[in-house]
Amino acid sequence: MKNTELKLSVLDLATVKENRSLKQTFDEILESAQHLEKLGYERFWLAEHHNMASIASSATSVLIGFVANGTKKIRVGSGGIMLPNHSSLVIAEQFGTLESLFPGRIDLGVGRAPGTDGLTAQALGRNPRIINEQFPRQILELQKYFSKENSSALVRAIPGEGQYIPIYILGSSTESAYLAAELGLPYAFAGHFAPEMMREAFYIYRENFQPSEQLERPYTIACVNGIAAETEEESKILATTLYQAFLNIIRNDRKPFPAPSKDMDEIWNPMEKAGILQKLKYSFIGNPESIENQIKEFQNTFHVDELMITSHIYSQKAKLKSYEILKTTVNNLNREFVNS
């Protein structure tokens, strides 16, 4: 295992649940962030998605402001902003405004995927033919807009200019690993839905990393699913909401997240089950002892600096309890690291 303190954070997808309003969704997001702050989590990120009845984080920057305003010290940011959906200047201004309102607490995680279907991507103004050159260029534009040196430019980001807003590169394949390494930026991998290339991506990133003004050495974040409960049985029941959510994606049915099921075999077929379990390969599901063993095994393989948990749990009460168990487990592991 990596013999340094493992940080723990959360990625919230603003999941809309059956029989819940959007207002209830947003209220639960804030309640989660406030709970995580008390527990000592590192950061709380929100992800940009569009045209999904199950996810309400399309106006990502607005939600970041909502959460930051309702908390005091936890870092809040994007995991991520899908940069080719936007003007670099607009994102620099939005996050410059957030940093001005909540100094020292805002993260800007960026990705290149659309966060939606092809038709909606067109409505967002994306040009798929230039994405691979557009995304790196936009990151450099953001860095320019945030720099003090841009004060003499004809186009300036105000607010934004001269502010320190850390940029994180997000990825679900190996392509962004090379870019994060080249630019010397921290790298977060979407292991919660794309586990296949995570090991290779982290290897590429570490082997090719070039120090930068923002970062002296590689910094890795692994996003994984986390569902913890007092008993194994309860955790497995809670996890059925996660399984049904992925099943809805396979069936192209993006309806709100369902309540847990007593028997998933009545819902999915064997082929769907195998495919979903493969996609959820890196998920921590179980009681405290089981979760601890799973995290140890994961760290023995990946040696990440930070775990970012996403929890598709229908019950808000059970979700908050899961966060408590996960934080207690990581705290215990960190004490083992210090004493080893």
How would you characterize the overall build of this protein?
There is one protein chain. The termini are close together. The radius of gyration is 19 Å and the shape is globular. It is of the alpha/beta class and 340 residues long. The chain has an eight-stranded parallel beta barrel, surrounded by seven helices. Helices cover 45% and strands 15% of the residues. The protein contains eleven helices and nine strands.
Give the percentage of residues in beta strands. Answer: 5-15%
| Helical/strand content category | alpha/beta
The spatial strand order of the largest sheet comes to: 1-2-3-4-5-6-7-9
Percent range of helical residues: 40-55%
Mean pLDDT score: 95
The total of beta strands comes to 9
Features:
alpha/beta, eight-stranded parallel beta barrel, globular, 9 strands, 340 residues
Quick structural summary:
The chain is an alpha/beta fold and 340 residues long.
Q: Strands, helices and their partners?
A:
Layout: E1 7-12, H1 22-39, E2 43-46, H2 60-69, E3 75-82, H3 88-101, E4 106-111, H4 118-123, H5 131-146, E5 167-171, H6 175-183, E6 187-189, H7 198-208, E7 220-228, H8 232-250, H9 270-279, E8 283-286, H10 288-302, E9 306-310, H11 316-339
Parallel strand pairs: 1-2, 1-9, 2-3, 3-4, 4-5, 5-6, 6-7, 7-8, 7-9
